Amino acid sequence: MPDHATIINLLLSGFDFIIIFLMIYSVLYFLRGTRSANVLFGVIALLLIATLAVNFFEKLTVLRYLLKDALIPSLGTAILVIFQPEFRRAFAQAGSLFVSNRTGKETIDQVVEAASQLAITRTGAIIVFERNIGLTDTTRSAVSLDARVDSLLLQSIFYPNSPLHDCAVVIGKNNRIVAAHAVLPLAEEDFFVNGKRLGTRHRAAAGISQETDAVAVVVSEETGLISIAKKGRLIRGLKPEELRFQLSMILLDHNSLWKRIGKTGEFKDFAEEDAAAGKDGEA
Question: What's the predicted TM-score (pTM) here?
Answer without folding.
Answer: 0.64
